[in-house]
Amino acid sequence: MANRGGAAQRPNSQTQGKICQFKLVLLGESAVGKSSLVLRFVKGQFHEYQESTIGAAFLTQTVCLEDTTVKFEIWDTAGQERYHSLAPMYYRGAQAAIIVYDITNMDSFGRAKVWVKELQRQASPNIVIALAGNKADLANSRAVECDEAQAYADENGLLFMETSAKTAKNVNEIFLAIAKKLPKNEQVSGAGSANQGRRLVESDSSAKTAGNCCK
Amino acid sequence: MNEEELLIRAAEERAIIVNKYAHGREEGAQIDPWEDPQFEIYHVTDRYGFIHDERIAQRNDKKQIQVEMEREKKWLKMAKEWDHHKRSPEKLRRRVYKGIPDSLRGTFWSRLLNLETIKQEQKGKYEEMRAIAWKWSPDIRQIDLDVNRTYRDHVMFRERYGLKQQALFNILSAYSVYNREIGYCQGMSQIAALLLMYMNEEDAFWALSALICDKKYCMHGFYIQGFPKLVRYQDHHDKIMNKFLPKLKKHLDRHGVDTGIYTLKWFFQCYLDRVPFRLALRIWDAYLLDGERVLIAVGYNLLKLHRQQLMRLGMDDILTYLQIRMERSEMDDDIVMESLQRCMEELKKAKLHYPGPSPPDELPKMPFGTFTEPTFEQKVGRRTSELTALERVATESVVLRRQQTEEQLEMDQLSPRPPGATSNGHHRLSHISGSDGGNLGGSKFSFDPSIDDASSLVSRRSLADTSVTSTADLSVFSSVTRSHAQDNSLDTHSNVSDESSGPRAITPTATPRALTPQPSAPSPDVVRIYVPYSSPSPPSPCRQNGDLPPRSLPCPLTSDQNKLIIKVDNNSQEEQTPIVEHGHLVKPFQLNSPEIDLK
Ligand SMILES: Nc1nc2c(ncn2[C@@H]2O[C@H](COP(=O)(O)OP(=O)(O)OP(=O)(O)O)[C@@H](O)[C@H]2O)c(=O)[nH]1
Ligand SMILES: [Mg+2]
Fold first, then answer.
1. Domain spanning A18-180: CATH superfamily
2. Are A136 and A103 in contact (CB under 8 A)?
């Protein structure tokens, strides 16, 4: 709860039809490509030497879905284990999360599972979680089979895609899939006061995730 | 994989990485073409070694270089009389805050850090640690990942496995076994790289070590598990914000940008990457001279200097401003550094300049440089358990900070308040309502004339020197002021009119108003109060806001005849300070107790 007025204070927010604003957090081991995915999604760029994230970084991006504009407030967190203790600050109150692993690194997949568990326990009960197997362009050094990840995602009701920040494969797609799955019943109105959080309506959080991956 | 296989794999992985750095770029080294950034013909290198696109206009540093060349002579002279200057550092300090000439930075940084002495004492230790690290360090993988991502836009670090990358890898891995409590923490690589821009490998190692364990800097507490020093520094930063920039603090809180979110990189890397590099160097000059209090003061200084812009922005833009735009700020470095010195004085007066020495949990517990074999979990890079106790403290405190901010905001909304007052007033009052309302205390008494002063460049001193106390300005007060003054709640003054006077509250006129009274103040109903007051002890943290019922503010007097001039100078010999209203003395004003107990 307790979302800020944020974009609600934009003067023209009422003229654009339905606008929804969601907090999304990226989690996953260091160097799996969290920052790279965000950079690709937000700016359409890829940097081979993307600096490591210290603490967290914040970016926003807006996507349009039929009659709805969905604005993502994205928190890209630091991957090193030591920063784990700060993560609750970022996933607290998040409506969506992307948990990223590197398909060439089995350990990072194990780490992703730990994150899933933690979110299921600690984050908002309605949080939409997506699992991203990143660096799909490096499929010839693959260590995590797509089927295995897909099965795990199905078991846990997660969205799943293999992505590549480098080639842009499935990057917009995964964000769009999340946008589609998020409940958009309530509109952000113009009257922005600090605590006017949108109460997310109970929705089909148990609904079966669309199988969505591999090739 | 069984345990043995895991160990073998980890050892192999480490050996491969170490081997690559050991051989660097010598003939036969296999370096994928994508590992090296391409140099384009449009690229130019700035005076610090960063590579830019020539087509994008860069600052012209010619004049700065000229000035520095002239200063070099003085610095060289100072080097000869170093012992004297270290003992009585007034001149040294003055010059350091003007900036150490870049050509002599390495020399003087080394001196400020006492590297010669340390190296004498620790002869051979660095090589020893490096050799152990290559064999044992469990942090090699992370270090390798980060060397690959550290300042690749700098000439020294551009080439994969180039000389300085090798050095960076070496000192970070050596340090990771030298200080096992830290090992390697993300954030250290940029600091080490900065040191390597000015020093050789071994010196940079000892410099890093001094920054981490010397009690002047004590960065140890930042990087260890649970980040205890970060939590403490953030609390301290909050105290400063509440006292000196309450409006801005409330604004940031309201937009979800609390201290926990923007100060981590500031403190962990002493402002690297958050201000322009050339300014970061100046800040580092000061940091190396004066130590950790510089970290605190720079944070305050930056927010103070940029607060007008920040006050206009919503969440997204505030964060973009703090993350990106501040790094591209064109503000003159000299002005920032001068302002920094004033901030330091201001904080000192309020006894908020130093968050205190590191408590035991922030200090190293194990001796440095003694090798102990890593545990199985460390070797294979697996965490031993759930969060440790220390980490849980960190988690709780970051979550708590957010919760309290939210509760406070909610409370501000629920409780009735007069139209002229902002939630800020409430916030503060709720902290002090436990005590006798007539008791004026340090925390309440936190009005600083510069808070709302459009020109942050006016020093506190210059305001003090001019005894102008009646400059009218809407940005400081609204009509509610007077009733507050009678209520002895001076602190709330600074918080008034956040919303009520709308955008006017942040009029960007850069006029030192105390010197140049604005002739046509928009409202006659305005006062300026100058309270040169320093609390004898810093107020205790205002943590549990939730449990005190907010006191409603008295109704504002709306007579537009009101004009109130108060001068309170607690330091002066006078016991009573007159209050003058409509030009007449109305009642004596007395401070009963300068302290207040915040429970
Ligand atoms: N081949 C390939 N490389 C990638 C991809 N995504 C990221 N990388 C590279 O992987 C490295 C790490 O990427 P980052 O985005 O910095 O990883 P991160 O997860 O944000 O790391 P931390 O900030 O340390 O947590 C960089 O060198 C990227 O260039 C990808 O899809 N394909
Ligand atoms: Mg990152």
1. P-loop containing nucleotide triphosphate hydrolases (3.40.50.300)
2. yes
